[in-house]
Input
Amino acid sequence: MQSRNTIRRKVQLAGIAAIMGALAIAASAQVSGYADKQMGPANVKSRLLDKVGIAQHLNQQLPLNLTFTDDAGKQVHLSDYFGPTAAANRPAILALVYYQCPMLCSEELNGLVSALEMLSFRPGKDFDVIVESIDPSEGTDLAASKKRTYLKRYGHPETANGWHFLTGTQPNIDALTQAVGFGYTKIPGPDGKLTQFAHASSIQIVTPQGKLAQYYMGVEYSPKDLRLGLVEASSNRIGTPVDNILTYCYHYDPGTNKHSLIIARVIQLGGLLTILLLGGFMWVMFRKDARQNQKPTKEVLVSGSKVNG
Output
């Protein structure tokens, strides 16, 4: 009996620890990190964000004459990656981000890397990863730093030639984002300066000829879907439109200086659900303990009554 009670107490302690961990996760899901930045209402879209969104331009030809600077400081054209003059005939994953993004872009690239880790396909051999900054003020050093970060996380340094972190001028950025259907707008940061961007989250699969073949929304991507998209794009097949789930997952209201991240809301709800489930489990375990602790007392009282009788 004592050993069973000991095991039960250990389980209860583990449950308490799990509840504390869930509370920490739910708390950390609040997008902070900036002085008075707070969670705003997730279902409210500022009128300033009317230009933000993703219009799926499937089968749209990217303008291959656009010029950018790669992470090594070299001038490159999109035609270096796509079309008849490309160095290799393979599809690419295109991500439009900005490297100093305080939240969403990192989540997007982390989600991409996590999905690629599950694939047998390798960048530089089966496809390319092209990341282009939408901020013309960002330069080569920052792009190179981001490449090192995500290449290290991916864990395959031999694929470095398949990862391309680019920067560019405003006209080239505008031409690329318009072709992709990537709508964004500048917004003030906590200091009041227009140093941040309100934008949506998606990655695009591009055929070897430079045509948009598939869109994947959000910040987490199914490895199975990603693999299928790459296989179809490698044969220059165009996919079908997808639902715009999590397109507006990052909201910013300069009027109240609040950020709202739907993903954070999901994490919070998941944490609260975990707390409820663990709390129910703990309540059942404590009830069982209370009942078992009452049984020996009843036996003593009964035996005592027999002796007195």
Observations:
- The two ends are 30 Å apart (CA to CA).
- DSSP finds six helices and 13 strands in the chain.
- Residues 2-37+265-308 form one domain.
